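for the recovery benchmark. tokens below, seq after
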């Protein structure tokens, strides 16, 4: 599609036992609409069980670059998200980077 400067990518990671989302999904997925050239996240979401959790993660990731800011994103998740999915979220973000580099 000509004139579209964004791509949609998804990063995946295994969910830990004992999470509400585990009953719906085996893996956690972080999805992002990303600027193709700079890797900046325009919008993001994930498969956490609650809408509030999905929106919170999207808000945290918006504006970061999957090209340059993966370590910063994982640090922000560790500082601001206090749930069982912390490791899965950081792994899914690292997988976003892999997916972006594969385009």
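predicted aa per position
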């Amino acid at each position: 599609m000509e004139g579209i400067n964004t791509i949609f990518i998804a990063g995946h990671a295994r969910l830990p036992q004992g999470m509400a989302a585990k009953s719906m999904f085996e893996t956690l997925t972080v999805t992002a609409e990303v600027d193709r050239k700079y890797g900046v996240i325009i919008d993001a979401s994930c498969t956490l069980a609650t809408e509030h959790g999905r929106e919170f993660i999207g808000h945290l990731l918006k504006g970061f670059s999957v090209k340059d800011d993966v370590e910063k994103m994982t640090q922000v998740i560790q500082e601001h998200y206090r749930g069982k999915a912390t490791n899965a979220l950081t792994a899914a973000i690292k997988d976003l980077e892999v997916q972006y580099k594969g385009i």
